[in-house]
Amino acid sequence: MGSRKRKLQDQLEEEKLKNKKIKEKTNKIKVQPEDETSNNPEIQKTTQNKWLRRLPKPEDVVKLEYKDFNFEDYYKQDQSYATAIIGSRYSGKTVFYHYKLYPKHKKYNDLNIKFCENLQAEAYDYLDEKDKIFAYEKFHPEIINDMFKFAKKSNNLLKTHFDFDDCSSKKNNKNNEFINQIYIRGRNNKISITFSTQDMMYISNTNRGNLDFLFLLKSNIPSMKKKIIENFLMDLVPIPEQWYTKAQRERYLYHWYEAHCDNLDEHGIIFINFRNAEMFHFKVDIEKEEKLMKKYK
Question: How many other CB atoms are there within 10 angstroms of residue 143's CB atom?
């Protein structure tokens, strides 16, 4: 019995040694990556981590909390704000502003001044005759300058809100000193700004750094999605730890962005609150908002 037991132990040891040699030999074999991360030197160093050999897919996305956006939770009557709305044409920027922001801006500000491209457009039918007195086609920087002068002379008598709706151009807006002043010191003069644009690059780096709130809607242009990812989402969105190469993180955020804003009919929106480091997504229910609008008329 003793000799049979020793013989069995020897066979087991021999089998373990054989398996160990096979495993060591297999680990030396380089496995070709399955996607475009193949140029990443990290992949050539090891194949132990299976995540390095593929990019994230839409089903890998961890979605944000979904909840309704309530204006009063964030915009306080005694404060001023810098807000940006970014999204492609027909993404629902004007619809969102009409139902979610416009009624409360009208209620809480003494003066609302609007700059847009075409006041005759159907999208602005919600403006009444009084609103249109302070609505202008094209951008007029001298009006901003006049409001700052008035605020200084009157000791901030009026609470003023400027609404820029797709009247952006890099030449006129990005480096305009008066727009910059609203972002930088407007809150000290009871002057707020809502800047709606298709191209986030129309908002300078300094002004992006002074934003209180950001609303992201659908972007149809891949290059614009990439800019939004690089300038906002990369540092704000929690990314699962298995996606840690640059290519993986960018692809994850690309799918993440689409998952929250892809449905044009429902106007999916990502809300980022820079003041309190909060982020969630919501959708504009037009039928519901139409009923609520009656309360403000």
Answer: 14
271, two tokens: 């809300």
Instruction: Check whether residue 75 and residue 153 sit in a common domain.
Output: yes
Same domain, 54 and 77: no
Residue 250 in domain = no
DSSP line for 192-261 = EEEEEES-GGGS-HHHHHT-SEEEE-----HHHHHHHIIIIIHHHS---TT--SHHHHHHHHHHHHHHHH
At 59 the pLDDT is: 86
Contact indicator for 75, 106 with CB cutoff of 8 Å? no
Q: Does residue 237 fall inside a structural domain? A: no
Are 6 and 42 within one domain?
Answer: yes
- Minimal CA–CA distance to 178: which of 155, 146, 154, 152? 146
Segments forming the whole domain that contains residue 170: 71-218+262-296
Other Cβ atoms within 10 Å of 217 Cβ, number: 24
Which is nearest to 196 in space by CA: 169, 225, 167, 175? 167
Tally of domains in the chain: 2
Any idea what DSSP says for residue 54?
S
What digits encode the pLDDT tens for the residues 65-105? 898 888 888 988 888 999 999 998 888 888 888 888 988 89
Residue 1: C-alpha distances to residues 4, 6, 12, 227, 235 (Å): 5, 9, 17, 75, 68
Task: Tell me the two tokens of residue 125.
Answer: 């039918």
